[in-house]
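Before going further, it is useful to explain how the protein records used in this thesis are read. An example of such a record is reproduced below.

***
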Amino acid sequence: MAEIDGDLQPARVFAHPGELIAAAGQTLGESAWLQVDQSRIDRFADATLDHQWVHVDAERARHGPFGACIAHGFLTLSLVNFFLPQIVRIDGARLGVNYGCDKIRFPAPVRVGARIRGVGQLLRAETFEGGVQAWIRVTVEIDGEPKPGCVADTISRYYL
């Protein structure tokens, strides 16, 4: 199991959708750090049938362009779902679901053993019948690295 370092409670709690809407443009906070180990990478490779050597062959990857195995970009992206509840919560929301992404980038590789965390910035939010929709940019920081492993402009729907 990967190591989690930090508090899993939400960094920012909003009492109602109006508070969230008013916070557009603000940084919401960050998640706990999560260590990405080879076991997690291997399980993701098995689940997605993506066994490219750069992810699963430590010996070959050691001599490759990144010097070690790296996490799949989509593994890094999928961890946004682990980070978001630690970044933001809306009181009274019964359910939060992914609605999509407007833009996703993978500026730097996440090497095996790296610690990553999500940092959220609320781009905008608006109500819809039965809830509120939020556009949140999640930057997946890599501990000790200048560039993030992923930047995703996510869209989440919270049902009230």
The mean pLDDT is 95. The radius of gyration is 17 Å. Residues 4-36+71-159 form a domain with the Thiol Ester Dehydrase; Chain A fold (CATH 3.10.129.10).
